[in-house]
Automatic annotation (TrEMBL), chains A, B:
Protein known as: HTH tetR-type domain-containing protein
One Pfam family in the UniProt entry: TetR_C_14
Domain HTH tetR-type: 16-76
Organism from which the protein derives: Streptomyces roseus
InterPro entries: DNA-bd_HTH_TetR-type_CS, Homeodomain-like_sf, HTH-type_TetR-like_transc_reg, HTH_TetR, MftR_C, Tet_transcr_reg_TetR-rel_C_sf
Tagged with keyword Transport: no
GO molecular function, one term: DNA-binding transcription factor activity
Amino acid sequence: MGTTATQPSLWDRSRQAVVASIFDTAMRLFAEQGYEATTIAQIAKEAGISQRSLFRYFGTKEDIVCGEQEELGELLRATVEAQPAAATAWEALRAGFEVLMEAHGEPGKLLEITTLIFDTPPLRARYTQKRLRWQELVQPAVTARMPAGEGPLPQVRAAAVTATVFACVDAATEAWVRSGGSADLATLYDEALAAVRG
Amino acid sequence: MGTTATQPSLWDRSRQAVVASIFDTAMRLFAEQGYEATTIAQIAKEAGISQRSLFRYFGTKEDIVCGEQEELGELLRATVEAQPAAATAWEALRAGFEVLMEAHGEPGKLLEITTLIFDTPPLRARYTQKRLRWQELVQPAVTARMPAGEGPLPQVRAAAVTATVFACVDAATEAWVRSGGSADLATLYDEALAAVRG
DNA sequence: TGCCCGCTTGGCAGTGACTGCCAAGCGGGC
DNA sequence: GCCCGCTTGGCAGTCACTGCCAAGCGGGCA
């Protein structure tokens, strides 16, 4: 639970193996038949596990795809808060996203997941919902970096800046997915933010 | 279907009456017991209609709350496109939202709906999903108002501007809801956008 | 007036995601 | 070899949602 990286116990690793096995099976089936057409029963059977246990690893069908966002949120928060005090809110958030982009394993797999999410409305809705959680997580750090406001408005200002950065990340990610992964995400993000703040 | 306002036929109005009756029943029950604890069966029974018919009026439980967004999207698109050519993308979008704010009936009812949406994660996810549809609708009009770009990037720039405006509307709306409706939405929006573009 | 046609409605049975409950297995400590 | 805790699997149930079909209702037309 804490920030200290408790090294993975044997138990953790076997759990991770099961999770990975379910995930791979599911992604294969999603690619073959589409997300909606694939049932939990089928994933469970092909992964050699009971339906009941599958739900113990992934609370929902959507979480099989969007699940790892949970941990990443904590990494984002920590990174943003660790930025030097001189950094503006914009710079701190950008640094956070740079770390996130490097935190993913193979970029190929990330592209596959992201494409699936952006092409499947319910998945995208879930994804957005989780990103909203991220916004709440970084909000304090962003508020602390805002120029001191006058009224009860600094809250709104901080929320607006945070939401804008996420919106630009979203726009950049969408363009990245539509380019089939050939474009550079960081460049797209900078372009997006420039269009907004220019 | 067209833009011409075909005046409501008798049939339309009886349909509207049923819709309103279901909606009112549902909102009352949601307020009394919460959204998740209220079942479709209960809403149908109290509204004096069969479950099957309820689903013919509202495709999903979420749409009972988020349903009217569908038509409003068209209004938004038309308004943005109708802005003078000299208006910037920012101004055109702002004008669109001003019209939307006036399009709602009683502000009290709007506050009730919006509060429910913002307090209920699945509803907010659905709401965001529909707003994404709005973004797609206005995208062409926004692209047309962007300063001519160099590469394949004007798409990203337009998407970023659009997404940012929606993000600011969201931040403003959230603050408005949290204030219990006492704050002024337009003022909050201007404050939010100023924080971003300042 | 009586019939017919189209549309709306309601019931029914089914699917698919998800949950609670309980019994069986399995591993490690003693 | 035994016991204890945790994980697993199966079962039955709930809830949102869908397709199908049969019944009702209203309006047009002879």
